[in-house]
Design brief:
homodimer; about 350 residues; alpha/beta; 434 Repressor (Amino-terminal Domain); Rossmann fold; 3 domains; 6-stranded parallel sheet; 4-stranded parallel sheet; 13 helices; DNA-binding
Chain lengths: ~350, ~350
Amino acid sequence: MRKSTLEEVAAAAGVSKMTASRALRGTSDVSKETREKVLQAAERLNYVGNRLALSLSSQRTNLVAVVVPSMSNIVFPEVLAGISAGLEGSGMQAVFGISDYDAAKEREIIRDMLSWQPSAIIVTGLDQPEDTVRMLKNATIPIIQIMDLDGEPVDFNVGLSHGKAGEDMARALIAAGRRRFGYVGSALELDLRAGKRKAGFERVLGKSGLAFMQSQIDDAFSSVALGKQLTRAALAAMPDLDCLYYSNDDMATGGLFACMELGVAVPGKILIAGFNGLDLANALPVRIATSRSPRHLIGEVAAKLARDVVADGKTIDRKRIAFTPEIIGIGPFENSTG
Amino acid sequence: MRKSTLEEVAAAAGVSKMTASRALRGTSDVSKETREKVLQAAERLNYVGNRLALSLSSQRTNLVAVVVPSMSNIVFPEVLAGISAGLEGSGMQAVFGISDYDAAKEREIIRDMLSWQPSAIIVTGLDQPEDTVRMLKNATIPIIQIMDLDGEPVDFNVGLSHGKAGEDMARALIAAGRRRFGYVGSALELDLRAGKRKAGFERVLGKSGLAFMQSQIDDAFSSVALGKQLTRAALAAMPDLDCLYYSNDDMATGGLFACMELGVAVPGKILIAGFNGLDLANALPVRIATSRSPRHLIGEVAAKLARDVVADGKTIDRKRIAFTPEIIGIGPFENSTG
DNA sequence: ATGAAAGCGCTAACAT
DNA sequence: ATGTTAGCGCTTTCAT
């Protein structure tokens, strides 16, 4: 049972390939009876169009290539879901690749994706090496860099400033009366956005004559378990901290769990601050501070941008779409739970 | 700066298209100098091959279509990561689609994906409607159904029996001395595997003359917050339960948080049991019971199966690969934490 | 070791 | 409203 082709459908309907093509796509005028005949023939033959041929011939794929660094916490899956939602009804299709925070792998994935002639490409972050950027530029398709705003975008840019997110969190925590800060994070050489948040946080600490009094950083990727482990180490080394800043909410959640196990009051004694505003963080039995990053929305907006740009070469003026994460979960010292 | 083609590379290298093609792919014999010339020309022109043309011409795409129901918890992203890992180095590429647990949407996504002429397709679950199955069969490519084993696979099947997972958990909990069971779940008409676990659990309860004394089920998708909310309702309705079974670990985690907030000892008074064995569940400050599902591994195995089947029509005998989730986190009544 | 011709399945452009 | 021709960029097949 070979796959049937347009030609076979046309023959079965007694019309030319072109008429069959038009009937199937609903473009231009085809008489009602002819359309019916073609649709029935297609149905009967279980016809499924061949997009390779379609795209090769029409010179547009309506494919949006997407490269994300990781699938091991919920952040990027939510971005992908946003992209998928933003593309819905547009006839465009997302193709995903995972770089595992590896620049070389990212380059190969991008090369691979570009060979499918996508109509646009969405990549995570602004820190691709020069050769990757060259490859991207060379593709002469819209390039949308998402999540981060701290750097020079190649073309379009949708995200937030992680440096500023770190600064804002530090300011909020200082305003809430915290002074004895510690930091817990992981894989900072790879997760550059986490590094930018930390740097921003430290800039503000410095301006107030403060600094991290204790810092626990591991090479492994972030996880709740790792956050727990590093928090135990941080508290063992410096028990009188009054605030811990984490590379993200997964780590911070682990930090909270460590405190609960150790009987350390949160936020009474220690305030725990993460980043992302995960649903999990908001459902925790004890409040932790976090910055809400609009992950799903960033994906959706990037996808809509891709649609608009591809639609008809429409000139888009807003090359940069910035979001500001809202800080939640910080209050005065009362309200402790251990 | 138009995209350069093989023809242009060939011209620049002073050879024919065919020779350039062979040099680039490293197939058959090309003299060392010729290869060099071609590679340099390709480099100079920033040549990126066109896979649409390649695939149309060669009649194979090396694409693996993957359809998952959701990206809103970590389970399917981990499956995708597993597939991505399992495909690495094979020259095959995964293309993902999200059905949102919607059968009609799933059918459209599958139709869409099939039009890209994938070499194999991986779909979640065994309960596709008849028309979707017909479409899949008609594609005459290997069909790999993952996650679930309870039903009739179209072709290949990699996963676990959710009915049995529910049964096993019920048996383990009864063996641990629990008798007064409640159930908390959500979206059971859509998440059929969760429903199968519940049914299996109830079968075993019935055999022991037991039943769920209280049951809280919502239409919304599972989340930690929802688990928390429904657990409060369940405990308000029936405070003397000694065990709650949840549709998954996200819900169960919410249940634990509810107990912590209410000061209900876990597992001293109530044992909380979920499903998945998420990293989160294992890092919780209080032990909950769960069944470890090998999500990443299922993805990896499915991907390798796709490789093998596609490789050279190799006949694969093992059409069904079954995993048995390990139950963890159940112990006797001591060890309580509130 | 290299090349020429044909064709993958479709659509764009131009008929009529 | 429908058909014809040419061609998208590559590989397959068959020559040489």
